[in-house]
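Dear colleague,

Thank you for sharing your sequence with our group. We've completed the structure prediction you requested, and as agreed, I am returning the results in plain text so they can be pasted directly into your records. Please verify that the sequence below matches your submission; if there's any discrepancy, let me know and we will rerun it promptly.
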Amino acid sequence: MYLRSVELMSSKIENQDQYPFDIPAIRSLERLEITNNVTFFVGENGSGKSTLLEGIAYQCGFNTAGGGRNNTYETHASESSLGNYLRLAWLPKITNGFFMRSESFYQFASHVDEMPASLQYYGGRSLHEQSHGESFLSLFVNRFSSKGIYLLDEPEAALSPARQLSLLRILHDLSGTSQFIIATHSPILLGYPGAEILSFDDSHIQEVVYEDTDHYQITRSFLENRDRMLNELFKD
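Please find the predicted structure tokens below.
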């Protein structure tokens, strides 16, 4: 492991009522210990998981629009609102890695196209010339390597269930020498064996077991009781 903890420097915050400090899970954050090479952030939309992940990326020196330390480009709303208020503890400090942000991946792919020599690090083929899911996997397979920290914000956005299983294999192959922190809604990804799952619901960040996540429980209930759940959902 490389990143050991994330601390919110509350003394630097001038207004606790402004974004992102008005998010309950962020407001209650003091020091978050990271205890696993594969850690998942889970929670409802707006719970703060992506905000914290982006802040960590900022402190790692990664482009918060998506990319590593050497990817310099701008895109709308890529500025971290939390990064300056975080302190990261490392053992050892590492600079290699990548921040994968699903919502701005198109802009990242365009940035890579502007540097043809860099295509060798992404499979030798433009990410725009591949399907959305293929381009995600090309990034994971070709750009991720040993001894790095990889921050993934909802990587399942373009991945079929089968491709999500492929990502699990990538995590398995690299987790011995690399660290992953992943914000996700996917019950498939959350099923990675032995992973640490941190929930941002209930106004604070706490570790939960896989079977207690809403993602698992709702998906299981739907698959096992589809007709009953749909009848209840559509009832006037």
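Summary note from our side: Residues 3-234 form a domain with the Rossmann fold fold (CATH 3.40.50.300).

Kind regards,
the structure core
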